[in-house]
Amino acid sequence: xxxxxxxxxxxxxxxxxxxxxxxxxxxxxxxxxxxxxxxxxxxxxxxxxxxxxxxxxxxxxxxxxxxxxxxxxxxxxxxxxxxxxxxxxxxxxxxxxxxxxxxxxxxxxxxxxxxxxxxxxxxxxxxxxxxxxxxxxxxxxxxxxxxxxxxxxxxxxxxxxxxxxxxxxxxxxxxxxxxxxxxxxxxxxxxxxxxxxxxxxxxxxxxxxxxxxxxxxxxxxxxxxxxxxxxxxxxxxxxxxxxxxxxxxxxxxxxxxxxxxxxxxxxxxxxxxxxxxxxxxxxxxxxxxxxxxxxxxxxxxxxxxxxxxxxxxxxxx
Length: 317
Prior knowledge:
9% of the residues lie in helices and 39% in strands. The chain is mainly β. It has a six-stranded mixed beta sheet with strand order 24-25-29-28-27-26, with helices on one face.
C-alpha cells in the first residue's frame, strides 16, 4: 500500500513537471515551452528575442498568459506582440495594460494582436467594473470604445450590460429605443421592455411584421400608429456594404415625402460582421426609426464584395 502511494506521487510529480509553460534562456537563445494535449510538451525558439536583455514579466493578471520582454519586443505565450514599447509596458488592471503611447486590452479577444484600445489617452483611463472602463468622454468595453453623451453617468451592471441616464448599453451597442424604466435583462445579449424584445442591441426581428413595399400604403396608413414593420423584397441581390452604404434608403425617402425630417444617421455594427444604418426621423406627430440591415452571408467567400443580404424596416412612437 505504501509502495503504491509512493509510485502515485512519483508519477504525479513527473506529470506536473513535464507539463510546463514559460520561457527559458539556453545557449544564448530564448525558448518558449508549452504543453499541447495533442502533441504533448513542446519547445519553440523565439528567433526575435535577445537573450542578453530578455526577462519574464509577472502580473497579478486574470488570464493565463505568459509575458516576457527584451530591449526591443514584448512577448505573450512566445509570440511577438507588435507595436508595443516594452520599456514602458505595465499593467493597469482588469486586463488593461499600457505603454507610453497607448492602452491595450488582453482579455476575451481571439486574436492576441487585436488588442489596441483605439483613440484613448492611457493617462486618463479609469477602471470601472470589469470589463468596463472610461477615458475622458469615452466609454471602454474590452478593447472597444463607445461615445456616450455623458460617460460619468454610466453605471456598469455586469460584464455585458450597463446604462446611462438615457440608454441601456449591451457590450458595444447602445439600445437607442429601449425604455429604461421597464427594461429587463434576460441574458448576456437579450433584454426586453414594455414595447419590444431586444437581441444584440437591436429590436428582435420577430417583433416586426413582414410585408412587401407594395402592400404598405404610405398614402392611407397612419404611419405613427403602425406596428413595427420589416419590408421584404426591396433588394433581390446581395450587396457590398462599402458600395451601398451611401445609397438612398427607400423607406427614408417615402417618409420624407410624407413630411418627416431626418434628425440623425448612425452607421453601426450588428451581430459580428453584419451592419445597420439607423436613421432617426420626426414629423409633427411622432418619431420614426428606419433601419437598413446588412446581414453578412457566411456562405460566400470572404473576398466577395457582394456579401450582404439587405432589408429595411421601421418602427414609430
